Amino acid sequence: MHNITPYSSPHYFIYLLLLLLPIIIGLWFGKRFKVYDFFATVVILITAFFGGNMSQGISLIAYVIFEMITVFGYLSYRKKHNSFWIFSLFVFLAIIPLIFVKLDPLIKNPTISLFAFMGISYLTFKSVEIIMEMRDGVIKEIKPFEFMRFLLFFPTITSGPIDRFRRFQKDVLNVPSREEYVELLHSGVNKLMQGLLYKFIIGYFFGTLLLPKVTILAMSYRNQAPLGLSWYVLAYMYVYSMYLFFDFAGYSLFAVAISNFMGVKTPMNFNAPFKSKNIKDFWNRWHMTLSFWFRDFIYMRLTFTIIKHKWIKNRVAIANVSYFALFLIMGIWHGETWYYIVYGIFHALAMITNDAWLRFKRKHRKQIPSNKFTQAFAIFLTFNIVCFSFLIFSGFLDKLWFS
C-alpha cells in the first residue's frame, strides 16, 4: 500500500465517510466516542504516512516526540520563570525541524531530512502558538494527550487550516446539541460539495486541462520576444491564479467539512479573496488562518517589541519595517528560491503602498470620488496585482528566464 494523500481523489471520501460514521452517529446522540476518535486518527495517519514509504511516518513520530519535549519543557520552565531569552530559545527549538526541512534543498544532504513529512509547517505553527500563548499566560496547563490531539487532528494535518489550541479545545471538550450538530452537518455537506466542485472540476479544468497547454505556448516564445514575454505569459498568470485558488480552497473546504462532521468548527481559510478592494483586504480573505497567524505572532509582536524598545519612533516606519519582516519570512517559509523571496517583498511593498494610499485618501476624502465605479476599479486592480504576484510565486518566470 502506498501513502495516500488526504483528499487526493473522490474515492478517498467514500472510505473516509465510512470511517467517520460511528463518530457522526455518536454526536447525533450527544456522545463523543474518544476511543474511536483515537482509532480513526490512527487509521488516517497510517494511510497518509505509513504506506509503502515508511520514512514520512518515522519522521512524524520523531517530530511529535521532539515537539512534546520542547513544549512541555517550556511549560515546566514557564510555571516558575518568564525570561524573554529562554522563551525565544524554546520558540527556536520548536521551529528547528522546519528549518532543517527548508534548508535541505540548499544543502542537498539527505540526513538533514529526518523531519520531512507532509504538513510539518502547519504542525510547527501549532506548536509555536502554544509556546507563545504559554508565554502570554493564556495557556497555563496542557496535557500530553491534549497536545497530541490538537497537533494530529487529521482533517487539517497536511495543509491546514491552522486552528488555535484554545478554540479547538473548546470544541472537542464539548458535545454540540442536536440542533447545533444538525447545523454542523448541513454546513459540512455544503462545504464538501463545494470543495468537490472547486478541486475536482474547476481546479481540474484550470490545472490539468488548461495550465499545461498555456505553459507550452508561453515557453514557445522564450527566444522570440524580449525576456520571453508574450500574451501567453499573461494567460498563464490568470490560469495559474485560478488553479491555485480553486485547488487550495477546495482542499480547505474538505478539511472544514470533515471537521464539522466531527463536531469541530475549524475556521475557514478563504472568503471570496478575488473580491478584495485592496491588498490588505486580500490578506484578510486569502489563506486567512495563515495570514492571521503571521499577523498575530510575528507582525504584532515585532511591532510591539520595536515600540517597547523605542528602536524606531515613527509609527509609519515601524509598520513598514514589520511588513518587510513579515512578508520576507512568509516568502522564505514557502522556500529558499528567489521567486518566493521576491513574492514576499512584492507583497510587503504592496502593503506599504496601500497604507500610504489609505492615509492620502483620509486627508483628501472630499476630493477623491467613491462610487460603484471606483469600487469596481479597486477590485479589478487588486485582482490583477494579486495575479501578478502569483505569477512570481509560481516559479514560471524562473523556468522562462533561467532554465
TrEMBL record:
GO cellular component: plasma membrane
Keywords per UniProt: Acyltransferase, Cell membrane, Membrane, Transferase, Transmembrane, Transmembrane helix
EC number: 2.3.1.-
GO function term, MF aspect, one: acyltransferase activity
Top-rank taxon, per record: Bacteria
Membrane-spanning residues: 12-29, 36-54, 60-77, 84-101, 107-125, 196-221, 233-258, 316-333, 339-357, 377-397
Pfam families in UniProt: MBOAT
Stored NCBIfam families: LTA_dltB
Family of this protein: Belongs to the membrane-bound acyltransferase family.
Protein name stated in the entry: Teichoic acid D-alanyltransferase
